[in-house]
Amino acid sequence: MPATCAIVSAMPEITTNPYSHVLLSRLHPDTQVKWHQGSSNVQLTLHLGLDIPDGAGIQVDEWRGGWKDGKVTVFDDSFVHRVWHGGKKNESRERLVLLLRMWHPQLSPVDRAMVINYKPGIDWKPKKVKAVTKLLTSDKGVQARWEQQLKLFEQPGYNERHQQAENKVPPTKYSAQDGGSWSRERPCPCHGSFCAFCALPLTLIRFRRRDVREGGHVL
DSSP secondary-structure letter at 186? Predict the structure, then answer.
């Protein structure tokens, strides 16, 4: 996939993210991936639908939906989520998506550099950390891309709706019928692990903890 690799390599929101990866995700008919979640909200997960058969779906917290061929579904994987393929074996084809992870647009390039330099556990060599930090803090192209992406998340009225939903989050329990048992007793699903919202001295970040976009243009 040389063309795909060339496009992704030109995306600093992906290449400068030490948590990121890009892969083809296949899901066989009559299978599921039970409830799971990422450890941090510093990034968003993107699913580009490549081959989406009937019966395949995804649920992120209380949101339930699916994919569409040629469209991107974007969500915060620090929320508990699951996927399934309800098609019959030997009759339905695999579900195929291109999975990418990028920095959350509400984390500025300078804030991203802070994460890279001060978050324990990042296994990049010092030379790479220095080079990526310079790119994030001084490259005008990176700044321009970030500003363009941020506008997509700053729609009129969205902040108010987000805050209202955040204030009403109840404890949520998921039954075995929904793909396994899991309970959430606190609004922040990444509390207790690394959360950029509370672990760094940031004042301008409002993470979309309930943000799921279907078919949106993000890249």
Answer: S
- Rounded CA gap, 210 and 75, in Å? 8
Q: Which CATH number goes with the domain that contains 197?
A: 2.60.120.10
What pLDDT digit, counting tens, does each position of 39-93 carry?
777 888 999 999 999 999 999 888 888 899 998 888 888 888 899 999 998 889 9
Residues 128 and 194: their CA atoms lie apart, in Å, by 22
Give, as one character, the DSSP assignment of residue 52: -
pTM of the model: 0.73
Distance CA(125)–CA(155), nearest Å, equals 38
How many folded domains does the chain comprise?
Answer: 1
Instruction: Give burial (CB, 10 Å; 0-12/13-18/19+) of 203.
Output: exposed
In a domain, 123, yes or no: yes
User: Does residue 219 lie within any of the structural domains?
Assistant: no
Q: What gap in Å lies between CA 117 and CA 103, rounded to an integer?
A: 15
Q: Where are the beta strands (DSSP E) in 28-181?
A: 31-36, 43-51, 56-60, 63-65, 72-75, 81-85, 95-103, 172-174
Dist. CA 102–CA 181, nearest whole Å: 29
Token pair, residue 63, equals: 């949101």
Per the CB < 8 A criterion, the answer to whether 53 and 92 are in contact is yes
